[in-house]
Amino acid sequence: MTTTTSVTGDYTLDMSHSTIGFTARHAMVTKVRGRFADVAGTGHFDVDDPARSRVEVVIQAKSIDTGNADRDNHLRSNDFLAMDEFPEIRFTSTSVERAGDDRYTVQGDLTIKGVTKPVAIDFEHTGAATDPFGNQRIGFEGSTTINRKDWGVNWNAPLEAGGVLVGEKVTLEFDISAVKTA
User: Fold this and answer.
1) How many other CB atoms are found less than 10 A from the CB of residue 86?
2) Cα–Cα distance, 32 to 38 (Å, whole number)
3) Which of 11, 5, 4, 10 is nearest to 177 (CA)?
4) How many domains does the chain have?
5) Could you tell me the CATH number of the domain that includes residue 35?
6) Which family does it belong to (predicted)?
């Protein structure tokens, strides 16, 4: 069992064991899921004083992957992420608060397409362990829902039967494994 003292510390995101993804409504009848493959992140987690915790994540917009090359290229275009002009999506925490046993709310600034807005992400601390290679790991799962139009991601197409092709609400989903740094 990992002690409180061993959990508190600085961490680097391990993307080979993490997923940063999203879900959006498509054609009013289903959801499209995707993820970002090129993500870097660091943070400090203080289990005794969560207010001392912080996180910063940088996502390369071009790494978007929904399993469909045509859709991914459209999402990279000026209609959506405009990755040529805005290659990075960035999140920087502004506060971390305990929200219950093993639960935390991380407030921060999310920047998409050069627009920065505050968001709150609810996380569950899913555990800590030492892996077979001697690395101390910590895990978190969380999500938040944003309105993509708040960041200038406005493209849409009307449907013949009513409604639109792409929903405005996007759920951001985080399944995080991070490794403690020396």
Assistant:
1) 18
2) 19
3) 11
4) 1
5) 2.40.128.110
6) Belongs to the UPF0312 family.
| pLDDT tens, position by position, 96-111 | 999 999 999 999 999 9
The pLDDT score that the predictor gives to residue 153 is 92
Show Cβ contacts of residue 52 under 8 Å, excluding neighbours closer than 6 positions.
44, 46
Helix (H) or strand (E) holding 76: helix 69-76
Q: Which residues of 118-152 are buried (b: 16+ CB within 10 A; e: fewer)?
A: ebebebbbeebeeeeeeebbbbbebbbebebeebe
**Full domain range(s) for residue 139:** 4-180
Q: Which two tokens stand for residue 113?
A: 């397409």
pLDDT digit string, tens, across residues 112-145: 999 999 999 999 999 999 999 999 999 999 999 9
Shortest CA distance to 126 belongs to which of 107, 104, 95, 94? 104
The per-residue pLDDT for 2 is 44
pLDDT exceeds 50 at position 3: no
Could you tell me if residue 166 is left (phi over 0), alpha (psi between -120 and 50 degrees) or otherwise beta? beta
Q: List 119's β-bridge partners, or say none.
A: 108
Q: For residue 23, give the amino acid letter.
A: T
- Cα separations in angstroms, 99 against 79, 107, 122, 123, 146: 37, 12, 8, 9, 20
Rg value, the chain, Cα: 18
Rounded mean pLDDT of 58-78? 96
